[in-house]
Automatic annotation (TrEMBL):
Pfam family, one: Ocnus
Protein name: 14 kDa phosphohistidine phosphatase
Residues of the signal peptide: 1-44
GO biological process, one term: sex differentiation
Molecular function (Gene Ontology), one example: protein histidine phosphatase activity
One GO cellular component term noted in the UniProt record for this chain: cytosol
InterPro entries: Janus, Janus_sf
Higher taxonomy: Eukaryota, Sar, Alveolata, Colpodellida, Chromeraceae
Domain of life: Eukaryota
Active site as annotated: 215 (proton acceptor)
Family, similarity comment: Belongs to the janus family.
Purpose: JanA and janB regulate somatic sex differentiation.
The entry's keywords: Differentiation, Sexual differentiation, Signal
Binding site for substrate: 188
Length: 289
């Protein structure tokens, strides 16, 4: 027969033949599989199941499986049929949920860092660069800005669904949001379109920020406010720069955005003229960045 040598921290399991008798290969495989199964950490499975020892907080402790024969054990995915095994399906669903949650773990600062890198990459693309590459970067940036808007201003991850929804109609809500919010000085700006699909009401917004390093930062506060209301469709139409001198009453609109492209500056000027006194001189051109 085979015998098992004593186990210690300095030794490992070893098998020794005795009396020249052969040990069944099937029995050896069965023993190896059993040892592997019962030494599998609970953390290898998702969720707190009756198979896992738990602490007082009802969370998996990460201890080994109990050897109690009365407790049902999950089979690993390698031995389960995904089409017929309910335990496998439960594990797969938990894994999918965990993956989705993992995607929400990024902090606002991490997202902003990645957005900065993408915008720098867009800025460094040559004029004759592959349009597919540019579009890929722009789409990635848009996906990240959408994720960023799901964060609270402090980046703690509060969902927009936690924000109270106003009771008035979406179009009435849009009416109450100022069309223009820009400071004095020279800064990046974005043009944002919001619409109420139920009524067809459409409104253009102009947002600028002296402190914005990238164009998405000028639009994020407004988009977060509009999306929190619900029932509205929003889209950044483009961007550029604004030079605003309140003392002389002049505004110059120009340039473009790497992430959003060039806004229709003529439309921006139209919005600005409705907001500022008629004495203001407001012009636009497409030169510069």
């Amino acid at each position: 027969m085979w015998s098992i040598a004593p186990f210690s921290r300095s030794s490992s399991l070893s098998f020794h033949p005795s009396k020249g008798k052969r040990f069944s290969l099937a029995a050896l495989l069965l023993l190896t599989s059993s040892l592997h199964f019962f030494s599998t950490p609970c953390k290898a499975f998702v969720g707190n199941t009756p198979d896992c020892d738990s602490d007082a907080s009802n969370q998996p402790s990460g201890k080994f499986f109990s050897l109690s024969p009365t407790r049902r054990r999950f089979r690993s995915s390698a031995h389960a049929n995904p089409n017929s095994d309910p335990y496998y399906r439960a594990i797969a669903q938990d894994l999918e949920r965990s993956a989705n949650e993992m995607g929400e773990v990024k902090s606002a600062s991490q997202i902003e860092k990645e957005l900065g890198e993408i915008n720098e990459a867009l800025a460094n693309l040559p004029e004759d660069a592959d349009s597919a590459k540019r579009e890929e970067l722009q789409n990635r940036a848009e996906a990240l800005t959408h994720t960023l808007r799901r964060r609270d201003p402090e980046g703690m991850g509060s969902p927009l669904s936690a924000v109270p929804v106003a009771r008035e109609k979406p179009s009435d809500f849009l009416d109450d949001v100022p069309a223009v919010s820009i400071p004095g000085g020279t800064f990046k700006y974005t043009q944002v379109k919001a619409s109420d699909p139920s009524t067809g009401f459409v409104k253009l917004f102009v947002r600028g920020d002296l402190m914005a390093e990238y164009h998405y930062q000028t639009a994020t506060p407004l988009l977060r406010e509009l999306e929190a209301r619900g029932g509205l469709e929003t889209e950044v139409q483009g961007g550029g720069r604004i030079r605003h001198d309140p003392d002389s009453g002049t505004i110059e609109v120009y340039g473009y955005s790497y992430q959003y492209g060039r806004a229709d500056h003529a439309q921006t000027v139209s919005v600005l003229k409705k907001h500022f006194p008629s004495s203001y001189k407001i012009s636009w051109h497409n030169e510069g960045y």
